[in-house]
Each structure stands twice: as C-alpha cells, then as structure tokens.
Here is the input.
Amino acid sequence: MKKTTLLLPVIVILGALGLSSIYIVDEREKVLVLQFGQINAVKEEPGLGFKIPFIQEVVRYDDRILSLDTQPTEVTPSDDRRLVVDAFARYRINDVVQFRQAVGVGGVRAAEDRLEGILNAQIRAVLGSDGVTSNTILSEDRSVLTSRITAQARERAMPLGIEVLDVRLKQTNLPAQNLDATFARMRAEREREAADEIARGEEAAQRVRAQADRTVVELTSDARREAEITRGEADAQRNGIFAQAFSQDPGFFEFYRSMTAYERALKGSNSTMVISPDSEFFDYLSGSNGLDPTPRAAPGVPPAASN
Here is the structure.
C-alpha cells in the first residue's frame, strides 16, 4: 500500500514531464526551440517535436502571408501638391532565426512597427521623387510606383527576416487644411469654364440674331419692292382702262366721275356744302327732278350731233 502511494506521484510527475517535453508543429507555423534565450533548434516541418522541460521553450511564428495597414503619411510630389497616402503591405516571415535575432522578444508587433517605418520611408521617397506629380499618383500609372515601393521595401526588410510580397496604396487624399483651398480653386475653374461657355454661346446667339435680322430686312425689302412693282403695274393697268373707257365715251366717263364725287361728298345723313349755285359740280343735279339727262360735254370735246 505504501509503495502504491509513493508510485502515484512519481507517475504523475513523469507523465507531466513527458507531456511538457513534447510539442506539435502546425503546418501554418514555424517553431524555434530556445534554451536560456538562445536558439537551440528550428522546426519548420509539421509534426511532433521534443524539448527538455523547464530548460527549453518553444516560440511559434505564423508562416502564412500577413497583412499590415500603415498609418496615413503625408507626401509632397514634385508639383508641391501635398497628399495624404494610406497604404497596406503583405509580407511573410521568411527566416525565423534572422527574425528572432532582429526583433527579439517583441515578436510580430515589434517587426510590424519597424516594417511600417520602412514602408512609410519608401513611400515618401518614391512618391516625392523627381518627375512624380500628384496626377501620376492619382492615375493608373501609380502601379509602376507601387512596384518601386515594393522592391525597395523588400530590400530594406530583408535584415528583419521578412519578405515583403506586395505594397498597395489604399487611399490618396488631400490634407484637411488644403481641402477648402482646393475646392475653391476647382470651383473657380468650373465657373471660369462656365463663363467661357456662356460667352461663346452669347457670341453664337448674336451671330444668329444678326443673320436673322439681315434676312428679315432682305426679305422685307424684296417683298416691298415686289409689292411696289405690282402696285405700279396695277395702277398703270387701271389708268389704261380708265383712259380707254374715257376715249370710248367721254360723256359717260364724266358722268361716272361726277357720281363718284357726289357719293364721296354727300356721305352721312346731314352733309353741308358751301359752293356757288352755278358751279359745274351740280351740273348733273340740275334739270327736272334735279337731273339733267343731257350731260355737259367735257371741255375741249365737241358736243354729240343730234339726230
């Protein structure tokens, strides 16, 4: 009984020591076995591993592709138009031994702080280089710039045991203090373009109106000229008819002229005329019942012969 009581603690202790000496390496990670803070072994293949309990410790690092979002950084392109750039990078731990030696116990957090400093420095260096303008950064050509940033950041991150796979620009904005000035300048440019368009439209409208006015004057002048010609031809035709009628029967023509004069002079119900009683105007009103059936011959025309 006493032996059993003594063996149980020993078995438990041996079991705990056995379990603590075994570790499992996942396929998504790499493992360092440290002994008194120094690297004793590297385990990159998945499976079981063994270590000395209480003397050695296992440090695990993610072997997958990791992402890092950088803090917005301000850059000044060659056209002196400041921009705030927000980027992200994808990287992986390439050499765990070099990584451990570079960042120590800080691990991934310390490595990302140093990597972010490298990325921001390269972003400012590339986007602020000669020939790079804000329009280039905002256009499709910025893929060439991001490739340059990736290449330079990869080279400077190698001492950390990190391989930078890709760097991309997420956002490119203007600084807050420059937004109002930029919007005002854009508004002024649009208003100037609108004023130019309005001026060109007014000029075109003036040309159209001037052309229309000239056309109206020309049409009116032609119509008036044709009307005067037509009126003159009609007057000539009328005078010809009157002359022909006068030559055929001068007495009737004189009678017609007198009747027309009476009609025009005696309009209305109460007409008053001041004229000599023996005036020739009343020749056709004298005689029986106010009519003289024998009209007076026109001056210069011999009276008609009686039968």
In short: The radius of gyration is 59 Å. Residues 2-62 form one domain. The chain has seven helices and nine strands.
